[in-house]
Amino acid sequence: MEIDRKAFLDSLGGAEGVKRMDAEARADALENRMMSELNSAVTAKKYPTAAEVEAQIETRPYRAGAGFLIVPRAGGNVKKLPPMPANPTLQDYFRLRFNDTANHVLQSANLAMKNGMSEEIVLACLLHDVVQEIMRTDHGWWGAQLFEPYVSEKVAFAIRYHQALRYYADPSVGYEYPDLYRELFGADYVPPPYIEATYQMVRKHKWYMEPRMVAVNDLYAFDPNVVVTIEPFLDIIGRHFKQPKEGLGNDGSPVAHMWRTISRPDQPL
User: Fold this and answer.
1) Share of the chain above pLDDT 90, in %
2) With bands split at pLDDT 50, 70 and 90, how would you rate the model's confidence at 262?
3) Is 58-263 a CATH 3.40.50 domain?
C-alpha cells in the first residue's frame, strides 16, 4: 500500500507536529492511517447492480443455472465419465460423479464436525450442494428431494431450506450477508417473494437452527488449501443414510431418475 507522505504528515500537524511525537506514537499513527485507507478501499469496492448482472446473460455460452456435470465450471469440452458400479452407493457417487462439488461439501462437513455440530447437521452439510452437479437453480429444494427417501426428515429440512436462509443475516450465530452474493446477483438484489416467504416460515420453525447451521458452515468452506476425504464421515453415513441394496438409481424410489441422471448425464434420451 502506498501512503501519500505529505498528506500523512499534514494530518499530524506537519513536520513540527511529527517532531513532538515519540517513535511509538509515529508508528501508531502510520498504522492507523494504513488501516483507514484499507477500509476506504474495501468500502469503495463497486458491486454490479441487478440490472448489470442480468445484462451479462447474453454474453455467456451457457446457462448459469445448469449443473456442473452438464456445463463444467471451467468451460470447454466435457470429459468422458468412468462407468458406475452395478449397485452404486453414495460413496461411489462421491468418488465418480460429485467431482465439482465434493471438495466444498467435504470441507463444509469437516467444519461442522470441528464446530461440534450434531451428526445430522454434519450429514446435511456433506450433502447440501451435491445436487448442483445437475441443477443449480433452487438447489436446496432439488437437493432435499434427491435425498429425502434416504435421510431423516430433519436432514432433508436442513438441506431444503439452507438455500433461502443464505440471503438473510443472523448475527446471533455470526452469519452476515456474503459479499459474494453482491457480485453474483447485484448490490441492489432483492430475493424473490417465495424466498422471503420461505425465510419467514423457517424463521418461526422449531428446526430453524438446522438449515441455519448448514448455511453457517457452508459459507466459510471454500479453502483451496484444505483437502478433506470422505473417510471421516463413513460412520455417520452408515448411521444416518439408508443405502438401498439395489443401488442408488435402481431402487424404484420416486427420485431414482435423479440418481440415474447424475450417473448418465451424456444419455441423449
Assistant:
1) 65
2) very high
3) no
